[in-house]
Amino acid sequence: MYENQLSSPVNYSIQLQGTNQYGCSDNANEQITIYPEVEAGFMHDTSGCSVFEVNFHNQSYGAQFFTWNFGDNGTSQDINPSHDFANYTTNDVEYNIEMIASSIYSCSDTAYSSLVVYPSPIASFSVSPLSQTYPSTIVDIDNLSSAGNWNYSWDFGNGTFSDEQNPVSVDYQQWGDYEITLEVYSQHCSDATSLMVEIIPAEPTASFGSSASGCAPFTMKFTNNTQYATSYLWTFGDGFTSTHEEPIHTFYDPGIYNVSLQAIGPGGEDYTQDATIEVFEVPEAYFSVG
User: Fold this and answer.
1) Is 149 found in the same domain as 101?
2) DSSP string, 56-110
3) Residue 201 and residue 21: Cα distance in Å, rounded?
């Protein structure tokens, strides 16, 4: 067997001598050419999630031309090609790869390999409504992720979590902005997506107790019935104010006083003048004894 481990052709001379029974002989000479050996080989990652981008590393020698067949009707003639392998099923898919390496002397060799592409989930969901005003706080959730044998991990952004496929709804109970995140995953692959929901603070509704009357000096504690407020400004109509939630105030002079309340909260402010305080003059008792 003739071999050529060099990078150029090697010529061998072959001689045949024939002799008959009478001692007569003759020689025949022939020259053969052995071209450089071609050996095909390559390396690559063997498994990944769809869409799986694979970079092939050519380890062939003695070849100048390459024909790749990726097993999905895709081909290439690059030395070190890259190729995307997709799997849109719910099961693992195996692709068989073939690479033919050939030289300028028409010598060739073929290398084979395979890889596995795992199905990848596509995480998707919708929420309704995306925005609402307190005290409405319930958000409905619809899981729109791709079909498959997946696991699910929900983070509702308010310290609560779920591993249900369809958690249906979540009650936020307080205003604020919340990010809902869904991760869909399997043993090998995962995908995640997020949406923001908004619970708008309610506008304050300023309200306090009814009108009252009494003799000077008249002291009254005001009952605050306001909703959704965090700070208050009372005006008593006698030149005095208060920022207490439920102030106690004394009216010293007789007269009629219009009391107003300004309530301020995250959702805005409201103003009301709910009460009239009437303070009567105290009669001055006097008599004499003759």
Assistant:
1) no
2) -EE--BS-SEEEEE-SSS-EE--SS-EEEE---SSS-EEEEEEEEEE-TTS-EEE
3) 119
What is the amino acid identity at position 59?
Q
Domain boundary among 200, 230, 260: 200
> Which among 20, 3, 21 is positioned nearest to 12, based on CA atoms?
3
Locate tokens 């306090």: which residue? 208
- Phi first, then psi: what are they for 267, rounded to 5°? -90, 5
Q: Please state the pTM of the whole predicted model.
A: 0.75
Contact present, 101 and 79 (Cβ < 8 Å): no
Other CB atoms within 10 Å distance of the CB of residue 193: 15
Share of the chain above pLDDT 70, in %: 99
Q: Does any domain span residue 248?
A: yes
Residue 50 and residue 44: Cα distance in Å, rounded? 16
Residue with tokens 């022939």, as numbered in its chain: 30
Phi-psi region of 7 (alpha: psi -120 to 50; beta: other; left: phi over 0): alpha
Which has the higher per-residue pLDDT, 142 or 27?
142
The residue-averaged pLDDT of 100-122 equals 96
Position 4 scores a pLDDT of 66
In a domain, 101, yes or no: yes
| Radius of gyration, CA atoms only, the chain | 45
From 141, 174, 200, the end of a domain falls on 200
**Residue among 90, 160, 157, 153 at smallest CA distance from 118:** 90
Q: Are residues 114 and 77 in the same domain?
A: yes
CA distance 84 to 54: 6
Contacts of 56 (CB under 8 A, 6+ apart): 42, 43, 44, 68, 80, 81, 82, 83, 97, 99
Instruction: List the structure tokens of 227.
Output: 């909703």
Chain centroid to CA 205: 38
Count: domains in the chain: 3
- N residues, the chain: 290
Q: How confident is the model at residue 2 (pLDDT cuts 50, 70, 90)?
A: low
Q: What distance in Å separates the CA atoms of residue 284 and residue 7, rounded to the nearest whole number? A: 131
